[in-house]
Amino acid sequence: MDKAKIGVIGAGWWATEFHIPNLKKRDDVELVSVCKLEQDQLDFVKNKFDFKFSSTDFNEMLNFSPLDGVIIASPHFAHFDNAKASLEKGCHVLIEKPMTTNSSDAEKL
After folding, report:
1. Backbone angles phi, psi at 64, to 5 degrees
2. CATH number of the domain to which 9 belongs
């Protein structure tokens, strides 16, 4: 069985303490790409968890390599744009709460 290729948008405390370590433990998951705005923190996360690619731009991250799924752990105001772009690439998404900042955007997704 092929490994699920996963990207992570937003790599703050919750993502680096829970989402990413739990995914890293799985034999059926490949951590492909990660996005975070702060370059020094991004470099640390990329190296610590052995991501193949990192970027401060989520669109660049999504275009690096085909992904099966994306964890969206960015600030809540960015969830809609991050999820919309990920879904348009054909990815499954897990979005931290709140899903979006309003019900209209949630319905659009």
Report:
1. -60, -50
2. 3.40.50.720
